[in-house]
Write a structure and sequence with these properties.
The protein is α+β, with helices and mostly antiparallel strands. It is built from three helices and four strands; from the N terminus they run αααββββ. A hairpin with a 5-residue loop joins strand 2 and strand 3. Helix 1 crosses helix 2. The relative contact order is 0.18.
Length: about 140
């Protein structure tokens, strides 16, 4: 699934929600790319986290940067095309609803390295903030 942006709308969404890409994370990716006040953005912290995972899976660095809070956003982002993101497991969420200002999402993202063929996982507890009606990723704490 690496560097396949954009996916066809009828493809299975990489976040494994069970929806098609166009009905799930793809609409957020396209909405942020289009910009403007009418852009479709993730309504919850979990939806933003899932769409960010999908952006990693399809290689959409622009979306990742656009949804990263300005206070912690890097100047640029170089995605590793040698990593294939395989599965996302949402472990827990706290707050992060449509009316909340902050939220936390714990997840495990599974990947495979093209170079070594080894499998691995990233376990993170991510913090999100909602400003101006949009959710942003702030930072994450890696778990062993």
């Amino acid at each position: 699934m690496t560097a396949t942006w954009p996916l066809p709308d009828d493809a299975r969404c990489p976040c494994l929600s069970g929806e098609t890409y166009g009905a799930c994370c793809g609409r957020f990716h396209v909405g942020v790319a289009a910009g403007g006040p009418d852009a479709v953005t993730a309504p919850t912290a979990e939806a933003l986290m899932r769409s960010r995972y999908a952006a990693f899976a399809v290689g959409d660095a622009d979306y990742l940067l656009a949804t990263w809070h300005p206070s912690t956003r890097p100047a640029d982002l170089d995605l590793d095309n040698g990593v294939t993101w395989r599965r996302l497991d949402v472990v827990a969420t706290s707050a992060g609803g449509p009316l909340d200002r902050t939220g936390v999402v714990e997840f495990v993202a599974h990947f495979r390295s093209a170079e070594t063929r080894e499998r691995g996982s990233l376990h993170e507890v991510s913090s999100f903030v909602r400003e101006g009606g949009r959710w942003y990723y702030v930072d994450g704490e890696h778990r062993g």
